[in-house]
Amino acid sequence: MDKNIKNIVFDLGGVLIDLDFKSAIQALQETGFTNVKEELQNLDHEGIFQKFELGNVTPDEFRTTIRENSTVSLTDEEIDKLWNLMLLEIPREKLELILELRSKYMVYLLSNTNAIHWDYVCKNAFNYRGFRMEDYFEETFLSFEMHLAKPNKAIYEKMLKDANLLPEETLFIDDLEANCKAAQEVGIHTHHYHIGDDLSKIFE
User: Fold this and answer.
1) DSSP of 69-125, one letter per residue?
2) 108 — phi, psi (to 5°)?
3) What residue ranges define each of the domains in the chain, with the CATH number in brackets?
4) What are phi and psi of 145, to 5 degrees?
């Protein structure tokens, strides 16, 4: 790794937390929301999932849309549970790695996520040895709070500005090549992570 790197920026889904799209899609389809898969793959930011990720609809508006597309009666809690099936866990060795890296680097999170998933992650995924989410990162940059999403270059530029980071001193780790390429275009070093890779190898 480049010896000039001072800042590490992690993606969340697919890099830190394991994902299970299949279970969430299947569970939502079973409620009668038959075209959920097509909606999730709608990348023009006009679909409900993309609007939710950009913070352009509230959790209540998101839940209302799920109900409108379902043929069964669902409570808020039931909808959240179905939606959170997508999220598995952050392996313990990754949590230990982040805590270790914090002694050498400034560590950040940059994620395309939504309010329901983020609430779940904060309550469940980072609980380890008494640590909480706040203990792992200097700052978190979240699409639904920023109203910007990767791979839009503006999200990287805003992160650099808000955290006062130099791109040449920053390494961004993401599981999508498009997101890495966009970060490179603003001068950020990147590592394209593949599921199953050993994250610690990057820092050897």
Assistant:
1) H-SS---HHHHHHHHGGGB----HHHHHHHHHHTTTSEEEEEE---HHHHHHHHHHT
2) -130, 165
3) 7-18+91-203 (3.40.50.1000), 21-86 (1.10.150.240)
4) -85, -30
Q: List all residues 6 or more positions away from 170 whose beta carbon is below 8 Å from its beta carbon.
A: 5, 6, 7, 8, 9, 160, 188, 189
Tell me phi and psi for residue 158, to 5 degrees: -70, -40
- How many CB atoms neighbour CB 170 within 10 A? 26
Indicate which residues carry an active-site annotation.
11
* Residue type, position 4, single letter: N
For 97-148, how does the pLDDT look when each residue is reduced to its tens digit (9 = 90+)? 999 999 999 999 999 999 999 999 999 999 999 999 999 999 999 999 999 9
Chain segment 126-140, per-residue pLDDT in tens: 999 999 999 999 999
Degrees (nearest 5) of the Cα angle 86, 87, 93?
145
